[in-house]
Specification:
Length: 254
């Protein structure tokens, strides 16, 4: 039986700026990654997102990013491993405060954007992030790009890890995501994205931009909540997975 988690980045509004349709998209996912105020989100948005996810019984994870609100955390910043450790501990703690105050429990941590992609290849950064997660709570699950250094670092330190694949992103032959600076980074056609997801889950393979198959493991699928058609895409992905006899289930059972 094929079982996979379906996750989405949420809580990305802040101040006067509204991003995404968080409440509606929660009906189609099993886990959410909540922005912790560095790349997006603010305290009020964090609280409201936690409350909504708990009401709909969707598992909650911290989504720590680089301190880059203007660039939405997608610009590489040359931080040290110690800085990476510090900002991850800080952001996990911030979200965990809201979870505890609402009677909830954190399931996982998934770095955001540039921090995520840097850690996928940089061993020192990935070790620092894994250590931050482990020291805060060794029972947390670490989400990382499938087959990446971040997943390996999590496993090495003793964390449960989840290999993540992306529904709407293209891949390079080394298993990395195509940079958003490239024109072909996103899959614009929903049916193409769904076909890619189903193949990753069932066959453990994805076709790279270089025309070669990349082998990967799909424990959790990321769909983005900030796109123009995010809600309809989430609905389409969920229905297509179920029709393909793929069970959608969160990583942890509690």
């Amino acid at each position: 039986m094929n079982i996979v988690d379906l996750n989405c980045d949420l809580g990305e509004s802040f101040g006067a700026y509204q991003i995404g349709n968080d409440e509606a998209i929660l009906d189609y996912v099993t886990s959410v990654n909540v922005a912790c105020g560095f790349h997006a989100g603010d305290p009020t948005v964090m609280r409201k997102t936690v409350q909504l996810a708990l009401e709909k019984q969707v598992k909650i994870g911290a989504h720590p990013g680089l301190q880059d609100l203007i660039g939405f955390g997608r610009r590489n910043i040359n931080i040290s491993p110690q800085e990476a450790y510090d900002i991850v501990v800080y952001q996990i703690g911030a979200l965990n405060g809201f979870l505890q105050s609402e009677g909830g429990r954190m399931q996982h941590v998934k770095p955001h954007g540039a921090l995520y992609n840097m850690a996928a290849k940089n061993k020192d950064l990935s070790r620092a992030i894994a250590e931050a997660v482990y020291k805060v709570n060794p029972e947390l699950v670490l989400f990382g790009l499938s087959g990446s250094e971040l997943v390996r670092a999590g496993q090495a330190i003793g964390l449960q890890t989840a290999n993540e694949v992306f529904a709407d992103r293209t891949y390079q032959q080394d298993g990395s995501l195509t940079s958003r600076n490239e024109k072909n980074a996103l899959i614009e056609n929903d049916d193409d994205a769904v076909a890619q997801v189903i193949r990753m889950v069932k066959e453990g393979k994805v076709l790279s931009q270089q025309g070669t198959d990349v082998t990967l493991k799909a424990d959790t699928i990321c769909i983005h909540g900030d796109g123009a058609h995010a809600l309809s895409f989430a609905r389409h992905v969920k229905k297509s997975l179920e029709l393909s006899e793929i069970t959608i289930k969160s990583i942890l059972k509690y």
